[in-house]
Write a structure and sequence with these properties.
Strand order of the largest sheet of chain B: 1-4
Strand content of chain A: 5-15%
Shape of chain A: globular
Oligomer: heterotrimer
Number of strands of chain A: 8
Chains: A mainly alpha, B mainly alpha, C alpha/beta
Number of helices of chain A: 16
Largest sheet of chain B: 2 strands, antiparallel
Order of helices and strands of chain A: HHHHHEEEEHHHHHHHEEEEHHHH
Shape of chain B: globular
Number of strands of chain B: 6
Radius of gyration of chain B: 29 Å
Structural class of chain B: mainly alpha
Number of helices of chain B: 25
Strand order of the largest sheet of chain A: 1-6-7
CATH superfamily of the largest domain in chain B: MetI-like
Helix content of chain A: 55-70%
Largest sheet of chain A: 3 strands, antiparallel
Radius of gyration of chain A: 29 Å
Helix content of chain B: over 70%
CATH topology of the largest domain in chain B: MetI-like fold
CATH class of the largest domain in chain B: Mainly Alpha
Chain lengths: 519, 607, 242
């Protein structure tokens, strides 16, 4: 082996050997990089030690002593909890934003391709306005716009349908009841069944060559099942609860460390096998030893999944989920909360639960405590605060505009040659769009769409400008309290990196899936 | 059916309406629906703007604050000089790059017809009344456009519309150069300064602000400087045209270089008024120029010498090591920067300085660039002589502009380096560059700005202190650099493998291959994306308002809404934000449109 | 005296062996045509000669310099060997003149005026002096390929390699490129040409080789090769393409 490597290696001219130059350059670069990094970090450590506030993560456990304007907990008992609230607030905006921006952006993109002059021009005008104004200015504008509404006064008190004031926007909201989980579970099942019915009718159509109305059939299935669901069909889901109850009992009876170790070992084993397979796969053919970005992605992802599973084994994740469901106190045990989780599931999916899954709840304007101020009741209806509205609306509108561009260029890229081909086959315009252009355009659109989602996730951080307590604002509050700027920054970094990684993983997954279908 | 009537089939206008608005029943519905929405929102916007609750004087009074914050009044001429330099350069480029496109008189009338028709339609559709929400929640209806005012605008614009409608068909063969026509339009805008009256602030004899006559011309003193600048611009437009006609090739290189150097020159010398001591000039700058001039001369003189050629590689490596050492040593910055320039000279000189003529030219370029570099760095690194209450001479739009331009300047080379690293075949370099790019990109800009404002000082060695603007620039360079890197990488990946092979086959070394063959092609393919990201960084520069820099946005959202002197503007946020939206919109919109046209002119992607 | 000598050159792409031991010699001024079915390793082989691909075993000696990992040797060989590609690979951002003078100026360190003079000479030789200031995108395929030949010649190589120079051309343009090559061969240039143009092989070549599955199957004079092939594989190949 060594002989092969050293073949033709002339010691006299080693300094101009290509292989030597390559590696020498890389090693030199690595040394320089590492040196500057070490220098950077070392200076940081030295400077921090000379100040009064040494680097520490202690604040995560301490009670911060400040309240948060909104979130699932307004008086968190630890810094970590407080950051959790911020993260949750950020994710809330992100998910709502992604859904609405995708729908609105797609509509806008199609409107821009419309043959109707006025629709096309109106959509383009909206695009040109929103795209050319900084997002921050827009968010601040929406905030100022809401704040310009009158304040809540005593005379406003009482139950209302819809109300806008400088405190925010209040509107009715279906409030979750006990049976909501079961209802939702059944709904998922319904969707699955409707899909199956659709596929079955389509296959029938292909087999027998007559119109079998697949869409109508699947829609009817969905309608009938959902109606039954509402009328009490969700009780069927009680089976899940029953099984969960047994699982919980089983988990309770095994010593926790045994299955922690077992599951971790299984996860690591599978990840290892998968990674090895990936590396071996690339060992053949023309691209020997060269891993594509895709391969790296798969390897990293499987590694991350394995680490995640191991962490899950030793962390009270189940407990946390239960906590969200139940609102119980946190209690850390040596096991990782799986019994509690299944217990919670068993409680949620119980045969004995009845009643409608959601009830409309109407907002009410009430006196704030015993003060003379007036506010929206926090428990009734839904209240969108000014900060939330400004951030969410600004980010969503801005992203929707960019998504419309993605949709438009995606459709345009495909429709040029493909529509001629489709039309020459005798397809009608609507079938052409549905069967030929959209499936292909979707594939073209997916990567830039993912970029827009990433931008949206990052742009939510502008909530800090309108005092919306998302993770950056909360972090800022925290370091103003404790002076621990660097740890907070690291938390931000880890949080945003994992959000970005999750979004791009999902997008990458679909991207690869579609590529495989293509072959 | 009305749709099939004669008018909608035979008349061209009728056919247009039929095809574009009522092509099908769903299209007709959409037309009515969208038309209603458009008119409704338009009326809402007009009502919002003309609402008596809005106090637009809060914007117009503070125009100066917006542009330059607290820049001292006695140095105002410097601001005008900066603007003037850009305008003059603009005039020169318009003249020199004039495409010679012409427009006929009919074409001009066609445009004017469109404009006056749009004005007529807009004023006809504008609402008469608007709602004002009272404090007790009740709504009061207020008249904002009285009928007589509406008629006063509507009737002349209708008349003009009709006039232009018939005039646009005149068959006059006279053709006008579009560049000249556009300059005339610009001149008309400048001329309007003389008679359009917009309320602004003015000072009494003792320099105190007084509540002004609400109808003074725009910033009572600006029309004279603008006129002078406009005349200068015209002058340079004709100089540019002359140079073009004389076919002076060197200008094609000089103008882009001037555009590149212009902001540097403005910020280091004109805008800043640096305090330059002759002492340091004599003790540091002149010796540095002399020494490097001589070294450069020697390099150029001996670059094609046979006996030196043998040692070229060791000399190059030696200089590389030397410049790294110089860069790490605590020396004068001028020395370090010139060292980098020298390295560049060392690389290019063997290829250019092959004849006597080539040597002479290269030497001239070398000396000129030495002077320019020293001059700029001396200005930039000196303290300013101006005293401002906020402590920084940059504020408002000048700060926004500084951040946008210098952010781009700093991030472009970094982005190029990172992109080359990421596409490199050497795994170590590739992995490190990929890591840097991905980590920097996945975290939002605002957190990097927080890093710059509160954390960066921790990582700087004791004694080194940058002010906040510089720290923000450093972080911006990294952040947009990572984005640039991704765009450039896209360009690099679009270069076919054959180009690398061809470069190898004619014996180029890796550096020549990258910088003579690959990078020029890659950059050419991604110019549109790069322009887009420059616009993005212009928009993103508004984020510095959050970390407390007084850019144009922060002035609008926290300075003016807190003003109580001379007029109470407390809480006037909405007006500022509407103005700022419009302001940013004009800049980005015009810039993106211009660049689109420019790209077409360049004839990109000539493959 | 042979100017190119290869001994038992082997090359793998992953598990696939593209060259299974090629030994050959080319004399100075000789024109060698290599033909063979696609995937037979003929392109790979000539790309190994100027190190666009790296051979893994065997040795290649060009003009007395052995091709090793030594950077100096690689540079020396590349500046003596010119190459013309199937897809021209002209630099689209440079004019024809700049394309040709790029290497002389930057690699050979010649003065601009001298290189431009030389470039005009070469353009005249390939018959397109009037196109000097155009961009490659504005030329036809045949003209582009002739520019590519001029570009390679500008480095004053001793050896020219042609990698299927006419495969990407429309039929009516093939002749102008072949004419340029013919003229080059008559001037005494050492040439290795991978091509399917059997007419060119018959007329110009001093020797013809057939590659198949990484091996040199037959080596012969053109007359013998076409009229009286020794190998069955050659007969099959000729029957397929003629």
């Amino acid at each position: 082996m060594l002989g092969k490597v050293l073949k033709n290696f002339d010691i006299r001219t080693f300094w101009r050997d290509v292989r030597f130059l390559k590696w020498a350059g890389q090693v030199l670069f690595l040394i320089l990089f590492a040196y500057s990094l070490v220098l950077f970090v070392q200076t940081g450590i030295n400077n921090l030690q000379s100040t009064n506030i040494p680097f520490s993560f202690d604040f995560l456990g301490d009670t911060p002593g400040v309240s948060i304007a909104e979130g699932f907990e307004t008086l968190p008992d630890s810094g970590l909890r407080m950051l959790h609230v911020g993260m949750f607030n950020m994710i809330r905006i992100m998910i709502g934003g992604i859904i609405v921006a995708t729908i609105f952006g797609t509509l806008l993109g199609i409107a821009r391709l419309s043959s109707n002059w006025i629709v096309e021009k109106a959509a383009t005008a909206l695009l040109e306005v929103v795209r050319n104004v900084p997002l921050l200015v827009q968010i601040l504008f929406f905030q100022a716009f809401l704040l310009a509404f009158p304040r809540l006064e005593e005379r406003d008190r009482g139950e209302i349908m819809f109300h806008v004031s400088s405190k925010g926007i209040a509107y009715p909201w279906p409030e979750r009841q006990e049976s909501a989980f079961m209802f939702f579970g059944f709904l998922l099942l319904t969707i699955y069944l409707a899909r199956r019915v659709f596929k079955w009718r389509v296959s029938l159509l292909e087999k027998e060559g007559r119109d079998t109305n697949p869409f109508l059939w699947s829609f009817l299935t969905f309608l009938v099942l959902t109606f039954g669901n509402w009328a009490g069909g969700y009780k069927l889901m009680g089976i899940i609860g029953l099984i969960s109850g047994y699982i919980s009992a089983i988990f309770d009876s095994i010593p926790s460390i045994a299955y922690q170790g077992l599951f971790s070992a299984i996860a690591v084993f599978f990840a290892f096998r998968y990674i090895r397979k990936q590396i071996r796969n690339t060992d053949t053919g023309e691209i020997r030893g060269i891993l594509s970005d895709d391969d790296y992605f798969r390897i990293i992802l499987s590694g991350v999944v394995a680490v995640f599973v191991v962490l899950l084994m030793f962390m009270p994740f189940g407990q946390n989920i239960t906590y969200f469901l139940e609102g119980d106190e946190l209690f850390y045990k040596s096991n990782w909360g799986m019994p509690q989780f299944f217990d919670g599931v068993a409680k949620r999916f119980d045969f004995n639960i009845s009643g409608p899954p959601v009830i409309m709840s109407y907002p009410e304007i009430v006196q704030a405590g015993t003060t003379k101020f007036t506010r929206y009741s926090p428990d009734l209806g839904k209240v969108t605060t000014v900060g939330y509205f400004a951030t969410w609306f600004g980010v969503t509108l801005y992203t929707a505009i960019f998504i419309s561009e993605v949709v438009r260029s995606g459709i345009m890229a495909i429709s040029k040659g493909q529509s001629e081909a489709g039309l020459s086959l005798g397809l009608r315009r609507r079938s052409l769009l549905r069967l030929i252009i959209l499936p292909q355009a979707f594939r073209v659109m997916l990567p830039p769409m993912g970029n827009q989602y990433l931008n949206l996730a990052k742009n939510t951080s502008l909530g800090v400008a309108v005092a919306y307590p998302e993770v950056v604002a909360v972090g800022q509050t925290l370091y103003n309290q404790e002076g621990q700027t660097l740890p907070v920054f690291l938390v931000w970094m880890i949080f945003y990196c994992s959000i970005s990684l999750s979004i791009s993983s999902i997008i990458n997954y679909y991207n690869r899936k579609m590529k495989i279908v293509e072959r | 059916m009305i749709r099939d009537s004669k008018f909608f089939i035979e008349n061209p206008y009728g056919r247009w309406v039929r095809d574009n608005l009522f092509s099908s029943s769903s299209s007709a519905f959409l037309t009515f629906f969208a038309g209603f929405m458009v008119i409704y929102s338009y009326r809402g916007i007009v009502g919002f703007i003309l609402n008596p609750e809005r106090m637009w004087t809060s914007v117009t009074y503070n125009m100066k604050l917006y542009m330059i914050l607290a820049y001292p009044d006695e140095a105002m001429i410097r601001v005008w000089l900066s603007v003037g330099l850009a305008l003059i350069l603009g005039g020169l480029s318009i003249g020199f790059y004039n495409s010679g496109k012409t427009i006929s008189l009919g074409g001009i009338f066609q445009k004017l017809f469109t404009i006056s028709a749009v004005i007529a339609i807009l004023i006809a559709l504008a609402p008469t009344n608007t709602n004002v929400i009272q404090n007790d929640g009740s709504i009061e209806v207020v008249e904002i456009i009285p009928q007589d005012v509406r008629m006063l605008i509507l009737v002349p614009s209708l008349v003009l519309t009709l006039a232009f409608f018939f005039l646009r068909n005149v068959k006059i063969k006279n053709l006008f150069n579009t560049a000249k026509v556009n300059l005339t339009y610009f001149g008309l805008i400048i001329a309007s300064l003389y008679f359009i009256k917009i309320p602004t602030i003015s000072l009494d004899s003792s320099g105190e602000r007084i509540i002004p006559d609400p109808f003074l011309p725009i910033a009572s003193t600006t029309y004279i400087p603008w006129t002078i600048l406009y005349v200068g611009m015209l002058l340079f437009f004709f100089i540019g045209s002359l140079l073009k006609n004389r076919d002076i090739k060197i200008m094609a290189r000089l103008i882009p270089i001037s555009w590149f150097l212009c902001p540097l020159f403005i910020f280091s010398w004109i805008f800043k008024k640096p305090l330059v001591e002759l002492n340091t000039v004599f003790s540091a700058d002149i010796p540095s120029i002399l020494v490097f001039g001589v070294i450069g001369f020697l390099i150029i003189r001996f670059s094609d010498n046979e006996s030196v050629g043998v040692y070229r590689t060791p000399i190059n490596i030696g200089f590389l090591v030397l410049s790294i050492v110089v860069f790490l040593l605590p020396l004068v910055f001028i020395f370090k920067a010139t060292m980098v320039l020298l390295l560049l000279l060392l690389i290019v000189s063997p290829a250019i300085a092959t004849t006597k003529e080539g040597k002479r030219q290269l030497f001239i370029v070398w000396v000129v660039s030495l002077f320019v570099l020293t001059f700029l760095i001396r200005g930039a690194s000196s303290d300013t002589m101006l005293v401002t209450p906020t402590g920084s001479i940059f504020g408002g739009f000048s700060l926004t502009w500084l951040l946008a331009i210098f952010g781009t300047y700093a991030s472009f080379p970094l982005g190029l380096a990172l992109a080359l690293g990421r596409t490199s075949t050497l795994p170590v370099i590739r992995i490190i560059c990929t890591g840097i790019i991905e980590i920097v990109r996945s975290v939002p800009y605002i957190t990097w700005l927080f890093f710059a404002s509160v954390m960066l000082t921790v990582f700087l060695p004791a004694g080194v202190e940058f002010n906040l603007i510089i720290r923000v620039l450093i972080l911006t360079a990294f952040f947009s650099g990572a984005y640039f890197a991704e765009y450039i990488r896209g360009g690099l990946q679009s270069i076919p493998k054959g180009q690398y092979e061809a470069a190898n086959a004619i014996g180029m070394n890796p550096f020549q291959r990258i910088f003579l063959v690959i990078v020029p092609q890659a950059l050419r393919t991604i110019i549109p994306t790069l322009v887009g990201s420059v616009i993005t960084s212009f928009k993103d520069s508004s984020l510095v308002a959050i970390i407390g820099l007084f850019d144009i946005l922060r002035i609008g959202t926290s300075v003016i809404p807190a003003q109580s002197q001379p007029v109470v503007f407390i809480g006037r946020n909405l007006e500022q934000l509407v103005f700022l939206s419009f302001f940013f919109w004009v800049f980005t919109f015009v810039f993106s449109r211009r660049s689109m046209k420019f790209e077409k002119r360049l004839g990109l992607g000539e493959r | 005296m042979s100017i190119i000598k290869t001994v038992d050159v082997k090359k793998w792409f992953g598990d696939f062996q593209a060259l299974k031991g090629i030994s050959m010699e080319v004399a100075e001024g000789e024109v060698l045509v290599i033909c063979g079915p696609s995937g037979s390793g003929k392109s790979t082989f000539i790309r190994c000669i100027n190190r666009l691909e790296q051979h893994q075993e065997g040795e290649i000696v060009v003009d007395g310099i052995e091709l090793t990992n030594d950077l100096k040797n690689i540079e020396a060989i590349r500046s003596e060997v010119g190459m013309v590609f199937q897809s021209f690979n002209l630099f689209p951002h440079l004019t024809v003149m700049q394309n040709i003078t790029l290497a002389p100026i930057w690699v050979r360190k010649k003065s601009r005026s001298e290189s431009e003079e030389k470039a005009m000479e070469l353009l005249e030789r390939v018959g397109i002096p009037e196109q000097a200031q155009k961009f490659p995108g504005q030329l036809s395929g045949g003209q582009q390929q002739r520019v590519a030949i001029a570009r390679a010649l500008a480095m004053e190589p001793k050896i020219m390699l042609f990698d299927e120079p006419t495969s990407a051309l429309d039929p009516e343009m093939i002749k102008e490129v072949l004419d340029a090559m013919k003229e080059l061969a008559e001037s005494g240039m050492t040439m290795i040409v991978v091509t399917h143009e059997m007419g060119f092989a018959k007329e110009v070549a001093d020797r013809v080789m057939l590659f198949d599955e990484g091996l040199m199957v037959e080596e012969n004079t053109p007359n013998e090769f076409f009229d009286n092939p020794k190998n069955d594989r050659t007969k099959l190949f000729l029957s397929q393409i003629l």
